[in-house]
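Figure 6 in text form: structure in, sequence out.
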């Protein structure tokens, strides 16, 4: 398949997808994109705005994975002294993909502090997912990311990913989707076009 991996980070979700697919990943931070490229040299890595890239290139792919920014949706932001509007990129992309994309797609984000404006398709491993294909619930081992004593290194070991050499390591690692969850979702694409859920 031709896969588009948006907001790629250091490639947590990509880690167990193997090399049989043609993967294009988009990441806006140059240091993080460099770390991604070290791990996945065969992928095409685009340094740029993932939101705009989706709009410009969605027709070129069979499967799209998007992980838009989550901090303004997170339950943690309710404890912050300065309040911010939720970043509506999340819902813009869900609506866009529902309406216009003909292939398979999934959008991932945190469980928000509010009732989601669009009902998610499923929830796995403390994340919500919107998609146009079915994925059965499955339990995955968890690591307490916010527990005292949880180190960057232990998070990398838990996800079995190399330690990244970039700024804001903890944030970058914490934002990784569990690679086993992402592989489980990709494995569920063993479907035919008739199985695609229409909006």
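Output sequence:
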């Amino acid at each position: 398949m031709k896969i588009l991996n948006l907001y790629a980070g250091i490639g947590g979700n990509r880690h167990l997808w193997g090399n049989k697919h043609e993967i294009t990943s988009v990441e806006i931070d140059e240091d993080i994109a460099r770390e991604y490229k070290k791990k996945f040299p065969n992928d095409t890595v685009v340094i740029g705005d993932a939101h705009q890239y989706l709009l410009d290139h969605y027709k070129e792919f069979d499967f799209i994975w998007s992980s838009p920014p989550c901090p303004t949706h997170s339950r943690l932001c309710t404890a912050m002294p300065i309040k911010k509007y939720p970043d509506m990129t999340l819902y813009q992309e869900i609506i866009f993909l529902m309406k216009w994309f003909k292939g398979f797609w999934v959008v991932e984000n945190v469980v928000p502090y509010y009732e989601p404006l669009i009902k998610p398709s499923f929830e796995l491993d403390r994340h919500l997912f919107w998609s146009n294909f079915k994925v059965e619930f499955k339990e995955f081992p968890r690591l307490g990311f916010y527990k005292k004593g949880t180190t960057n290194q232990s998070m990398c070991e838990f996800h079995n990913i190399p330690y990244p050499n970039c700024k804001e390591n903890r944030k970058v690692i914490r934002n990784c989707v569990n690679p086993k969850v992402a592989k489980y979702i990709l494995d569920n694409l063993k479907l035919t076009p008739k199985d695609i859920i229409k909006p």
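Caption detail: The beta strands are 2-6, 22-27, 44-47, 63-66, 104-110, 122-124, 127-131.
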